[in-house]
Design brief:
mainly alpha; two-stranded antiparallel ribbon; globular
Length: 672
């Protein structure tokens, strides 16, 4: 055992990369010498009691060999975790004939470093004996995921705590918006250090309480560069750039991160001149400094100047190339992005993701998938972000299923953002059933997941299913946002649930502290309008500031007037809509249809003439279907399809009789 302890200390001292393992080794020091570790606060079992130790030299040699093998494997697991090779780390863990507590802790830490909290949790629950390091790591992981009930549960079960576990829990409560709970824990801490105080500064700032953050900063018994930078960053994050600059100039010592934080803040808030001054007065610059300038100038629309700074860089690293390519992508300059991409001496996953995302958003069609194939040929493994971009670029069910199959093959099907994209894309292509399967298979549902499924049901007319999803979301503890309410109010409209819709609309501000937006008013107007309560819908409209009236709200009310034959109000709303959007065909067409429906042909003619005089043209409606992997678009009155005669014959023979049975009295399809 002494050899194990001696060998561990020797390896740790020759490489700073193993600092975290040095902390772990103190567990073994405490057991070896019968004392507890000061930094971890407890004696823990090594887990070797079951080993039968022979008194012979052979037995001692075997034990030393076993201990060294375990130690080497633990080191490799940590290294693989830091490099993002979690699968290889787990494979090595599974192949180990024996595990000690460090093995479990190293594997759990590897999972947490790579955002695989649920796998870390599963392994943590199987630990034969928990360590304070593993417990603290899990608290930190839960806190970062804002799963505070789980974090508190692990914390409460700890036999002994340390500063790290307290600080992680406090940070989590701040992240969750539970400021009072965070303050209560801070007051209860048995021992505080500069990290704890700095966490309080950042926590208050995160919640917009900048004065309280400054008060804590002023009370700090000992300030270091980190705490100064934290306070400065708090001002930056809250948009108080002048205060941040003032504090920056007061700092007794600055490091590169201090300079970078201040320069980034100036660029984020369009204080480009101050950013220039700071950058050119830096005593030392590195590749990160230049990259911050390149990306910041691009964000301010100064892409040419960003390219000049990029060209001036003494040493361009991959991050700088990525920043410049991303700048071109964000400006829709895919030709320039592609040229730079081809010039890159070395590419990484971020590079490929930037280009694939650009083609997915800006086209042309097929380029995103083409670059994914090139990425695979380059032996660079796509990640969750890559596949999410690919999914959003799929224009047909065949492409979507291919992308989904690749996600399964790469083992990232259940990643949250990827599953969210699957839910949305399957819904967009009409397969609500597959959307539901992707949703139910998702273990870690976030607010986007719930919103995607809710909107999928809503857009397909399944209002009651959408409301059920909303109810499940509330029970899960997920707080709804503005988009959630758009979806659930639309669901109420489709389902004809007037009282439920009104109640939900009232809860937006009353129960959840959100400000109703034009989209929410539009939904409520639509709910009341569909139910024939046109005058109540008008009252809702008058509650809005007139400057916030938009086409969606007025269009919803005009549609309700048309549905219920309220010509007088339709005329008033229609004129308002045309004034608001004089170049959009929607208002003209809706109002003309109202007059046509009640036989007011003179008024109908006036609206059509006004539309013609304004040179406003109606965008033709069309249907899009996919057959055998090929998309077919059909516009109103379109006869350009090569199989048009067969299509019209089938429609007249099969569809038209059904439409007549349902009361349709329109023009014969064969004559259109």
């Amino acid at each position: 055992m002494g050899y194990y302890h001696q060998h561990m200390n020797h390896i740790v001292t020759i490489s700073n990369r193993f600092q975290s393992l040095l902390k772990l080794s103190t567990i073994f020091c405490g057991v070896r010498h019968g004392t507890s570790s000061s930094c971890l606060g407890t004696k823990r079992n090594l887990g070797f009691e079951s080993a039968k130790i022979s008194s012979s030299n052979s037995g001692k040699s075997n034990l030393r060999s076993t201990v060294l093998d375990i130690y080497d494997c633990n080191i490799k697991i940590s290294q693989l975790g830091r490099c993002g090779n979690v699968r290889e780390a787990r494979k090595l863990f599974n192949e180990m004939p024996h595990h000690d507590v460090v093995s479990y802790t190293s594997m759990i830490t590897a999972y947490l470093k790579n955002n695989e909290l649920w796998k870390a949790e599963k392994l943590f629950q199987t630990m034969p004996e928990r360590t304070i390091v593993a417990e603290s790591a899990m608290i930190d992981g839960y806190a970062k995921a804002v799963l505070m009930n789980k974090a508190q549960e692990v914390f409460d079960a700890m036999t002994e705590t340390n500063v790290f576990s307290w600080t992680s829990l406090i940070s989590g409560y701040f992240r969750d918006g539970q400021v009072a709970k965070a303050c209560q824990l801070f007051d209860q801490m048995p021992a505080k250090n500069v990290v704890s105080w700095t966490t309080m500064v950042l926590g208050y700032a995160r919640n917009g309480l900048i004065d309280q953050a400054r008060s804590v900063f002023n009370q700090l018994p000992e300030k270091n560069t980190v705490s100064w930078t934290a306070m400065m960053k708090s001002y930056v994050d809250n948009g108080q750039i002048d205060e941040a600059l003032k504090l920056f100039h007061e700092m007794p010592l600055r490091n590169l991160y201090s300079w970078h934080t201040m320069i980034s803040g100036c660029l984020d808030y369009k204080r480009v001149n101050e950013a220039f001054k700071l950058f050119h007065s830096m005593p030392l610059r590195n590749a990160v400094s230049w990259t911050i300038m390149v990306s910041g100038l691009a964000r301010n629309g100064l892409t040419k100047l960003a390219r000049e700074y990029f060209e001036q860089m003494p040493n361009k690293d991959v991050a700088a190339w990525n920043a410049m390519i991303t700048a071109y992508v964000d400006e829709c300059l895919m030709v320039e992005a592609s040229k730079l991409f081809k010039l890159m001496p070395k590419r990484n996953t971020v590079t490929w993701n930037a280009v694939i995302d650009g083609y997915a958003r800006h086209g042309p069609d097929g380029e995103a998938m083409k670059h994914l194939i090139l990425m695979l040929r380059s032996c660079i493994k796509p990640n969750e972000s890559t596949l999410t971009s690919i999914l959003t670029s799929c224009w047909g069910m065949l492409e979507l299923m291919q992308a989904h199959a690749l996600a399964i093959l790469l083992g990232c099907e259940c990643e949250t953002s990827l599953s969210n994209a699957l839910i949305t894309m399957y819904s967009r292509l009409g397969d609500i059933s597959s959307s539901g399967i992707a949703f139910e298979n998702l273990k870690a549902k976030d607010v986007v997941s719930w919103t995607a499924m809710l909107l999928a049901f809503t857009y397909h007319g399944h209002g009651h299913h959408a409301l059920h999803v909303f109810g499940r979301m509330l029970k899960s503890g997920t707080k709804p946002d503005e988009i959630n309410f758009v979806g659930v109010l639309s669901a109420c409209s489709h389902a004809g649930l007037v009282k439920k819709g009104q109640k939900l609309f009232d809860s937006i501000s009353r129960a959840y502290g959100l400000e109703p937006r034009a989209e929410h008013y539009s939904c409520l107007v639509d709910i009341l309008g569909r139910a024939g309560q046109v005058h109540k819908a008008m009252e809702v409209l008058y509650k809005m500031p007139e400057c916030e009236w938009d086409g969606a709200v007025l269009g919803a009310l005009l549609g309700a007037c048309r549905l219920h034959g309220d010509v007088e109000m339709a005329n008033y709303i229609g004129q308002k809509l045309i004034e608001l959007e004089p170049n959009s065909s929607g208002g003209y067409v809706l109002l003309a249809n109202v007059f046509a429906a009640c036989g007011k042909w003179d008024e109908f003619a006036k609206v059509r003439k006004k539309m013609k005089d304004q040179n406003v043209k109606k965008v033709p409606g069309f249907s899009l279907i996919e057959v055998k992997g090929k998309s077919h678009a059909f516009f109103s009155g379109d006869k350009s399809h090569p199989q048009v005669e067969e299509i019209y014959e089938l429609l007249c023979e099969k569809l038209l009789p059904v439409m007549h049975e349902m009361g349709y009295n329109g023009t014969n399809l064969g004559k259109s």
